[in-house]
Amino acid sequence: MSIEEKVAAVLAPWVHVAKQADVVVLIGVSGGVDSMVLFDVLEHLRHTLVFRLVACHVHHGLRGTEADRDARAVQNFALQRHVEFRMMHVDVLQNRLPGESEEMAARRLRYEALKNVADEYESCILVTAHHANDQVETMLDRILRGTGPSGLRAMREVRPIGRHILVRPLLTLYKNDLIQYARTRNLPFVEDSSNADLRYRRNRIRRELLPYLRTSFNPKVDHALLQLGRIVADEDQYLTGVAREHMLACTRRTHDGTLIAREDLLRLPIALQRRVIKLVLEGIDESVTWQYAEIENLLELVRSEKTRRMMLPHDWMVFTTVDFLHIGRFASRGDSEEFPWNPFPLDWSSFFSFLRFHWQVEAKVVKRPIAYPTSHFEAFFARSREECFIFRPWRVGDRIEPLGMKGSKLVSDLFTEGKVERVLRPYYPLLTLGDEILWVPGLCRSRSHLVDSKTEFVQQIVFRV
Amino acid sequence: MSIEEKVAAVLAPWVHVAKQADVVVLIGVSGGVDSMVLFDVLEHLRHTLVFRLVACHVHHGLRGTEADRDARAVQNFALQRHVEFRMMHVDVLQNRLPGESEEMAARRLRYEALKNVADEYESCILVTAHHANDQVETMLDRILRGTGPSGLRAMREVRPIGRHILVRPLLTLYKNDLIQYARTRNLPFVEDSSNADLRYRRNRIRRELLPYLRTSFNPKVDHALLQLGRIVADEDQYLTGVAREHMLACTRRTHDGTLIAREDLLRLPIALQRRVIKLVLEGIDESVTWQYAEIENLLELVRSEKTRRMMLPHDWMVFTTVDFLHIGRFASRGDSEEFPWNPFPLDWSSFFSFLRFHWQVEAKVVKRPIAYPTSHFEAFFARSREECFIFRPWRVGDRIEPLGMKGSKLVSDLFTEGKVERVLRPYYPLLTLGDEILWVPGLCRSRSHLVDSKTEFVQQIVFRV
Question: Cα separation of B462 and B456, whole Å?
Fold first, then answer.
């Protein structure tokens, strides 16, 4: 199969699926040999497969005049082939995040810029020139840094990116084949001088490590790694699917985090326990790269018979109760300025927690109170179908009409009597109905919504403290 | 945890499980620092954990006087500590198999020798001094050679070996810790001069590759690989378990191989398809290391709509029919000199095949013949509970009493009339009962065991050709 046939085979189904009169294929072109070959191939294919080709060069504001030269080279080529051309400028040095290397920042900003261009179209096919050698280098990089099996998974040929798709049609081709093609077709391309800079880890892998491995251990080491990556990708996909099913079965989302049923989790094979935890962590915060050590620590917490707590990166926190592991954000803020956390309606039957207080709450509908509440942490309310009970944080000036008293009382006075620390008060949950406060859990119940013989639905709420 | 505590923790449960008055712990001792440290530790532990320690040194007949020196060093140490000592001699150069490196042969023969000593006891705990660095080197070796995820799996701390178990209590400890221990305890140990020989791949990994990776990429690369190995080991175990269940559901063993139901297999996720095929291949021949390429080829065969056949290493052969993939040995011989394949009894209900003829056979019990046989490849027999119908290959002089004729006929004459090639005749299956031939499938049915109105059990046999 020629390179052109290969690219056509990968791309064609997606061009056809789009079924628009004017499918946009957006290619990121650095000007290097990989992207220029793909550019050339796509420029031919646009007539046979029928799509609108847009080329985009991202200028990183690094490497001074050399970068300007590269940008001009791509622009000229686009002009010459009558291809729409977009130039995007990003400033890597200005926009580098803490802990991010220059390479990582450049990569992130490049993708963002490409995605911004893509977003100008209703939907488009974003195409990059990653090839087999990139795959091999990425895998080696991850193996050496430390990774789990998911990290060994090869890049996928096609994946969604926002409302668009990202296609990498050269993934099974080696760089040598691309260079050969560029020579035969007499294509212009530029050489990024930083590719020779051995201070960059990636360049050391490409220019030192891989040649050494090929000479000293296995001339086909690239092939060996690609094969491993393909198998791992399939197994990873399968395991993720299985783990997701189990995750749905043994976790519950709450307003401020996720609950994992310890017993359900521990019944799974260890391989799945680890993957469920990983999915939960990724689900609560995609922006964090969760480490193996954190997953292992969480599993130890789940296995431990004691109830404990632990801090995670980015203010995430974990604590265990007898039945659950609760992962949530200690310092999470509500959407409004007014509240430190978002008020939420009380479902008739539900289970949730107030993380800051280490309280777990169970609500259910009962026929009659089974017994009198044994503490202020348990209460029964007459509740009609239409009534929406809300939990919200305390505000200055809140008053309650206590059961067994006349008139009302400031909740802040209850806090003082109950020795609730000042810093915790803004987080304290109150059960409310409209403007009325029904209950300050642990401290005081109002005389509203009492249960009597005519009550149809009895809402029971128990705080496990 | 000290080294001694670590070893005790790993070993203790197995010593206790054995529950014998006189548990034998057999240690293989090369004389190098790893095994001498373990020897020393076990020599202490034998009093507290209570077991009988036996040390065994395997002399490989390589490295001339240096090897003799090593053997003596171990023997002296054993003598000094009053530990039972065994010396085993193997001849690596004489016993090397084709395609085997000197290292591989030495390793195989060493294990065989240790297992021979172990077999002198009813059951024993075989102990080796593999440590964390060995793990790392093995993983790197496999990654570079080319492996699937199973190959990335770290060595297990405990595994069965024949009727014994193999325990590797030092697996989580690094070599440096062992050297430290040896120094502190002033232990004698020998240095194998071949360890410095960079012609050996293993030594290049230890002395060149790993130091380079630590310096240039990640000082904790060993830790990174061990962690990967542990996760992969758990996931591999899980996937193997799942695949085994599916394998049992979609395969059937026959007298000469294995049948895989194509549709059942193709319904599985690709990750499991691959693992089921791998398990089947390992099941039919453990001695072969099946390659990824062979598994992929088999999967392609299963997916292909055409029926095809393919040769595998070691005379194994595969062919497909509409419903099945059949893996078997083309040239398999029977145990006796007399037959090219082993006769086998016909189960009342069964499904099997004659590989050389590409025939699949279905046997079942029916109430009455549903219809008259439409060809000589289908037949009905009256069969009583006690009668053992046997399929066996043709022998010179075999005669049958054909239905609709008087007297008997030579089967060889039937072959000639039916144009069965001479080379195939010795493999041709005949259905027999005692000395009587009931059926030459495809050619002639005998007048014996006909079905009539008094027949209780009707055995139907259909050849799909």
Answer: 20
Q: Is B6 helix (H, G, I), strand (E, B) or coil?
A: helix
Torsion angle of the four alpha carbons B98, B103, B106, B108, in this order, in degrees rounded to the nearest 10 = -70
Non-local (6+) Cβ contacts of A145 within 8 A are B217, B218, B224
Q: pLDDT tens digits for A77-113? A: 999 999 999 988 888 888 887 777 788 888 888 888 9
Q: Tell me whether residues B218 and A292 touch, CB distance under 8 A.
A: no
**Tokens standing for B216?**
């240039």
Domains and CATH numbers, chain A: 3-217 (3.40.50.620), 248-329 (3.30.465.60), 344-464 (no CATH)
Q: Which of residues 194-233 of A touch B (CB under 8 A)?
A: 201, 204-205, 208-209, 212-213, 216-218, 220-221, 223-225, 227-228, 231-232
Q: For residues A255 and A429, is the Cβ–Cβ distance under 8 A?
A: no
CA–CA–CA angle A437, A442, A445 (5° rounding): 35
pLDDT tens for residues A101-158?
788 888 888 888 999 999 998 889 999 999 999 999 999 999 999 888 888 887 888 8
Segment 266-285 of chain A within 8 Å of chain B by CB: 269-272, 274
pLDDT in tens, A299-337: 988 888 776 777 777 667 787 777 788 887 654 444 445
Spatial contact of A376 and A444, defined as CB atoms under 8 Å apart: yes
Pick from B23, B21, B2: which is nearest to B12 by CA?
B23
What is the maximum span of chain A, computed from C-alpha positions, in angstroms? 95
Of B228, B237, B269, the CB nearest to A271: B237
Name which of B252, B239, B422 is nearest B327 in CA terms: B252
Closest Cα partner for B128 from B157, B88, B152, B160? B157
* In contact, B13 and B20? CB cutoff 8 Å: no
For residue A99, the one-letter residue type is G
Q: How far is CA A389 from CA A461, B71, B270, B356, in A?
A: 11, 82, 49, 77
Characterize the bridge pairing of strands B84-89 and B52-59: parallel
CA-based R_g, chain A, Å:
30
CA proximity to A154, closest of A169, A175, A140: A140
Tokens read off for B225 = 């690989």
Cα gap B57→B88, rounded to integer Å: 6
Q: What are phi and psi of A229, to 5 degrees?
A: -60, -40
Cβ count within 10 A of residue A247:
22
The rounded average pLDDT for each run of 10 residues, N- to C-terminus, in chain B (465 residues) is 89 77 87 94 90 91 81 91 91 80 84 90 90 94 89 84 90 93 92 81 94 95 93 92 93 78 92 93 77 86 78 74 75 54 77 80 83 86 85 91 92 94 90 92 94 88 89
Structure tokens at A262: 């310890």
Task: Give whole-number Cα distances, B34 to A35, B66, B70, B171, in Å.
Answer: 52, 18, 14, 11
- Please tell me the predicted confidence (pLDDT) of residue A337: 54
Q: Is B271 in Cβ contact with A238 (below 8 Å)?
A: yes
Tell me, rounded to whole angstroms, the distance of Cα A190 from its chain centroid: 36
| Cβ atoms within 10 Å, residue A351 | 17
CA distance B271 to A238: 7
Beta bridge partners of B362: B351, B462
Which residues is A461 bridged to in the sheet? Answer: A363, A379
Nearest CA in chain A to B233: A271
Helices (H), B119-174: 132-145, 149-152
